[in-house]
Amino acid sequence: MRTMRAFAVGMLLCSVLSAQEDGNARAEALVKAAIVFAKKNGKDKLLEATNLPNGEFHLKKGDALYLFAYNLQGVCVAHGSRIQLVGLSRYDAKDPDGKYYVREFIHNAKTKGSGWTTYKYPDPKTGKVELKTTFAAIHDDLIICAGAYKE
């Protein structure tokens, strides 16, 4: 009986980890697709496609994946879920635990070209603050980001 429970817990953990890996892969793929889009169509078209509610990189109904972008000073220049953040400096934004996540996006992108940041942020599907892992990459003078909420 104990072996069956251990097996069931193991399978559940594997499915949760698999879902997180899938979310992370989707987030990274979205950022890379956005960079390709910007190279082909220009930065302004990318920002427009992110900010428009029916744009290619905006939040889709039933999903929690969307693109967002900052300039090198931490000003939000595009947001696929919370358009009201566009134009605001988010450089000093902290999660509930005090983590300066925008600073980390910028640091990772500027020093390594890209990187992952884990922090807490409101999930648009649930409205609750959830653990999120975001992939950020630099393209010209933009830090382009997308993240997955941990299940």
Automatic annotation (TrEMBL):
Membrane topology: Multi-pass membrane protein
InterPro entries, alphabetized: Double_Cache_2 (IPR004010), sCache_2 (IPR033480)
Pfam families in UniProt: dCache_2 (PF08269)
Signal sequence extent: 1-19
Domain Single Cache, first and last residues per copy: 16-103
Keyword Transmembrane found: yes
Keywords from the UniProt entry: Cell membrane, Membrane, Signal, Transmembrane, Transmembrane helix
Subcellular location: Cell membrane
GO-annotated cellular components: plasma membrane
Domain of life: Bacteria
Name this polypeptide is given: Cache domain-containing protein
